[in-house]
Design brief:
The protein is α/β, with parallel strands linked by helices. The protein has a single domain, classed as Ribokinase (UDP-N-acetylmuramoyl-L-alanine:D-glutamate ligase), CATH 3.40.1190.20. 31% of the residues lie in helices and 25% in strands. Strand 6 and strand 7 form a beta hairpin. The strands form 2 sheets. Strands 5-4-1-8-9-10-11-12-13 form a 9-stranded mixed sheet, with helices on both faces. A 4-stranded mixed sheet has the order 3-2-6-7. Helix 1 packs across helix 7, helix 5 crosses helix 6 and helix 7 runs antiparallel to helix 8. It is globular. The protein starts with a strand and ends with a helix. It has 9 helices and 13 strands. Bound molecules: alpha-D-ribofuranose. Alpha-D-ribofuranose binds next to strand 2, helix 1 and strand 7.
Length: 292
């Protein structure tokens, strides 16, 4: 069983700040760093570092072609990453000193110029039972859900960043939907975690659901209604960027390795907790041997 992750690749420009800049305010930052990132690419690296066989598909610009080599160095197969002529995706990220919370401005660039032929080419290489992982930073997500499902792939979506386009996606075709509280509230209305999962389950009865709760861990709901909860480890957060990406990669990798849902949740929460103790997005994702 293989994973095709069709998703974004970004260059992250990260500034550490005393607080997230307020409207009208100009704020100095003492540190600047450039990191590899993008929700899609981060999730591929998390899968690979957790030990899964993952092929990344996506699009970079000429100036960000180095991201492809970065993924390959981590063991991600990059056969379906193309270099376009348009500028690559990038993110401006503020990280608040003390809390490690972030705020992100995203420029989609090449991530949002994926041509139909690139979708055809990637899907043709996978077979029923393989996993198709998607986020919401490329232009072809809705089409990929439909076509991946029709091809017999098990489609997993992390609808991040959440926007109105997600409301039009065929979410009922998903095998697995992974949301945080904000994304869950946008789909089901604000509620406590269990009731939010009840609402999502009523709407998408054939979809497995996972709600990530940051420092509170995660809750998973199977299609049978069985619910599993995992607490998070207590850590001092330095930078929370890519914690959700780390969680998803580790959760899927554990399931593909035959682990139970509680085991997969435990591995995912442990990996996410370790990632927030380090700066950067992709660079903060732990290797499986670090969790042993
Ligand atoms: O999830 C974190 C990622 O979101 C960052 O790496 C940034 O590129 C944005 O896509």
């Amino acid at each position: 069983m293989r994973v095709l992750n069709f998703g974004s690749l970004n260059v992250d420009h990260v500034y550490r700040v005393a607080h997230i800049v307020r409207p009208g305010e100009t704020l100095g930052s003492g540190t600047y760093a450039r990191f590899p990132g993008g929700k899609g690419a981060n999730q591929s690296v998390a899968l690979a570092r957790a030990g899964a066989a993952v092929w990344h598909a996506g699009r970079v610009g000429p100036e960000s072609a180095w991201l492809r080599e970065r993924l390959a160095a981590d063991g991600v197969r990059t056969d379906f990453v193309r270099v376009g002529e348009e500028s690559g995706g990038h993110a401006i990220i503020q990280v608040e000193e003390g809390s490690g919370q972030n705020s992100i401005v995203l420029f989609g660039g090449a991530n949002r110029s994926i041509p139909p032929a690139q979708v055809d080419e990637a899907l043709a290489a996978f077979a029923p039972g393989d996993v198709l992982l998607l986020q919401n930073e490329i232009n072809a997500t809705a089409e990929l859900i439909r076509r991946g499902h029709a091809a017999g792939l098990r489609v997993c979506l992390n609808p991040a960043p959440m926007d109105d386009s997600v409301l039009g996606f065929p979410l009922e075709l998903l095998d697995l939907l992974v949301v945080n509280e904000h994304e869950g509230a946008a789909l089901a209305g604000p509620d406590d975690p269990v009731r939010m999962l009840d609402s999502l389950a009523a709407r998408y009865p054939r979809t497995r659901l996972c709600l990530t709760l940051g420092a509170q861990g995660a809750v998973f709901r199977d299609v049978s209604g069985a619910t599993f909860r995992q607490a998070a480890r207590r850590v001092a957060a330095v930078d929370t960027t890519a914690a959700g990406d780390t969680f998803i990669g580790y959760f899927l990798a554990a399931e593909l390795a035959g682990k139970t849902v509680p085991e997969a949740l435990a591995a995912a929460c442990a990996a996410a907790a370790l990632s927030v103790t380090r700066p950067g997005a992709m660079d903060s994702i732990p290797w499986a041997r670090e969790l042993a």
